[in-house]
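**Protein fold record**
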Amino acid sequence: ILKAKLLETTDSEELDGLKIHYLNPVETWKDPKLQIRKYELWEPDDSVLHKTLLLIGQKGSGKAMQINALVNYCLDVKWSDKYRFKLIKDSQTAKTGINLYTIHHQNGFQIPYSLTIIDVESFTPSHSGARKNKDTAQLLQTILDQNNKDPVQQVDMAAIVLKSHEEKLILIHHFMFRNVLIKYFGEDIFQKTAIFFTHGDSC
């Protein structure tokens, strides 16, 4: 019922043989100084579990594609379907700072909980980007700080996004593990870390 309603009520366009439906989350909070923005889709339900996914990757790795793929999974979109839903456009991933996307649980979801995706500013492997990478890592610590106005209570899973043709972790990915994941979440984060490979589908 939810999926059928969204197909009827959302704006859409044809793209690469698929009908793309835009979900348009609402910006509910932002800190311009720290460059943190929070977007929410649908109304919260305090009776439902809530989980948080930390998504990190270098520029061009396809984080927007991965975020939209997760949303399509939640809405039970099949590979053979001739439509896709988009939470964000490719140009809307965090270029500076951090974006938080909260997708509140709805009847018809494929998962039994609400999901917050922490979209961290793209890391860069260049030497000139070293300072920026450290600033981004510190910014992540800010949203985990319980003294913050709207802190992230916990991170249930972390994922590093790689392009499908990348065969191994490069220097920047080692930076992510050492200076982001291990530093803030401890060695046991390895048990909760996945590698997401992006592909060519328009979702």
Remarks:
- DSSP finds four helices and ten strands in the chain.
- The mean pLDDT is 79.
- The beta strands are 11-15, 18-22, 26-31, 36-41, 49-56, 83-86, 98-103, 113-120, 157-163, 193-198.
- Residues 3 and 156 are 26 Å apart (CA to CA).
